[in-house]
Write a structure and sequence with these properties.
Length: 390
Amino acid sequence: MRDTQILKNRFYELYGAEPEVVSFAPGRVNLIGEHTDYNGGHVFPCALEMGISCAARRRDDEVLRFFSMDIEKAGVIETRLSALCPLSVHRWTAYPEGVIHAIIQAGYDIPCGADFVFCGDIPSGMGLSSSAALEVATGAAVSALFGLGISNTELALIGKSAENGYVGVNCGIMDQFASAMGKKDHAVFLDTATLEYSYAPLELGDAELVIVDSGVKHSLAGSAYNDRRRECEQALDALKSVTKLNALCDLSPDEFERYRDAIGDPVCRKRAKHAVCENARTREALAALDSGELEAFGRLMNESHISLRDDYEVSCPELDILTGLAWSVEGVIGARMTGGGFGGCMIAIVRGDAVDDFTGTVREGYLERTGLEARFITAKPGDGAHIIKD
Ligand code: GLA
């Protein structure tokens, strides 16, 4: 989290008044359970300490003004409450605008406009959910500003509906839920079909969770994410002709084997296989973490990567190189790409005494094979969204 005073000073410089509220919402990293959240499955993310802060103040007209300290040159962007229009905005303010729109759609009263300044420390395009953090931070600030009392679970749902309906990315609930509901030193095990969740202490003994940025920017707004979703829906429709189910992740891997031939299209069959098996892996991963079987957890992470690479086809050469290098280091318990894919980050669980070897091998090998600089971040699970009191 960046210094709140800097944010408040910038707010004053821009708008000539102090903000009334400052909120914070974190980014997230997913341990396992990828592309299961729109297939009725489980996910297992942690909120991070990195995130986005939002300073806000009410106005006496219906104007909305947005400024991001992370994109200074975009300047102050202005719109009006009555001008909010889904799928019409193609700049970064689509996220906060979408949240305000979704709050109104959910039946809350926003009687006047407001001024906003954002600042964060999650680089966008890394796959660590800077957009979910932006949505949830906006929601938390607006809720506090207008005394709406929106719960953190609802903030997550509002963020998702902004992203689906206003921005136009058909994402699941994982990122917004992790950002809203994360807990320091814990991972969140979430059933995305019911929104039942539990916190699992992230006790890694002498091992560390390391995030490695490939330097390849991913873009979910690209059509590939929505394509995967459509392929899963097609597979689900085909399966419905032979068995009763609501979502792909209702099936166990054995049941999937029994019914898989009903899915005529081989690509859709592979996508469905990933969703079903990844969901099973995610449940096993919780049990492994609970019982301190870190090696088993690591194996599941490796299998998850292979499935995302071969069956779901959302990895990319750079993430495969990073993961291959990680797997070659003695003392790496598990490694996989994390997040939506097509770039972004790998996560690895690495024994404390192997971290130097891991960093050296991955940095040098990656540079040699891709010409790119890998960036290493030690992940610390942090708390979910909250209002910052001074
Ligand atoms: C993105 C989406 C999430 C989820 C992941 C893949 O982060 O926003 O909803 O689908 O990809 O697990």
